[in-house]
Write a structure and sequence with these properties.
With 210 residues, the protein is α+β, with helices and mostly antiparallel strands. It is 33% helix and 15% strand. The protein has 7 helices and 6 strands, in the order E-H-E-E-H-E-E-E-H-H-H-H-H.
């Protein structure tokens, strides 16, 4: 993982097995994010799913500081903090489940999203929408919140407890996301947020988030 100050990133990881077994597991993981990750970046959106997670973040100067570790000379602070979260959470789940080894078998992946998307044959920002472009960050923001519905885990975006959607919809006052700052980067209208959050992302655009 390599981060640049002020850039926006999609951070995600998927396991081949269950990661979150109970509500307490989800909350424990989020407490780790609050302690280790939130202080070193601007978190815009997140979702935890039974076997994976997605985060949309903006790197800061603090994110990109080199930790100057002898065995990992290029390691940045944000990468280290994410590793701490995954490592400590894995240890806790291993104790809980009586298992051994890595829980997240894949390396955490990062995609920079500081680009605008120009559809190749039309002017739609989103399927059914209008406009000339949609930036990748906005598409990722929508994708993250739509994930539980697409996966069949809930029928409405607000029904899934473990995402930042409820915070943006005014149904919860969570402390993880920086909502005001997010709206400076996300091309959505705060007053029409709920309706715009239902819009479908074009397949071509969706593929570029990974």
């Amino acid at each position: 993982m390599h981060f640049e100050p002020d850039a926006v990133y999609h951070i995600y990881n998927r396991s081949n097995e269950t990661v979150f077994y109970s509500r307490e597991n989800y909350l424990f993981f989020l407490s780790k994010i609050q302690t280790h990750v939130s202080p070193v970046c601007n978190l815009f959106a997140w979702v935890l799913m039974p076997n994976h997670f997605h985060f949309l973040v903006q790197a800061t100067e603090k994110s990109c500081i080199n930790t100057s570790e002898d065995h990992r000379p290029d390691l940045q602070v944000l990468s280290k903090q994410i590793g701490i979260v995954l490592g400590s959470y894995t240890q806790a789940i291993n104790r809980q489940q009586g298992r051994r080894g890595s829980l997240f078998v894949h390396k955490t992946k990062v995609k920079m999203l500081n680009e605008a998307y120009y559809p190749s044959g039309g002017s739609n920002r989103l399927a059914g929408g209008t406009g000339s472009q949609l930036d990748y960050a906005t598409a990722c923001f929508l994708y993250i919140h739509q994930n539980p519905v697409v996966a069949g885990l809930s029928s409405k975006l607000e029904d899934w407890e473990f995402s930042s959607f409820r915070d943006y919809a005014g149904l919860r006052n969570g402390k993880l996301v920086k909502k005001d700052l997010a709206f400076e980067f996300i091309d959505l209208d705060a007053d029409a947020f709920y309706e715009q959050s239902q819009m479908i992302i074009e397949d071509e655009l969706l593929k570029r988030l990974f």
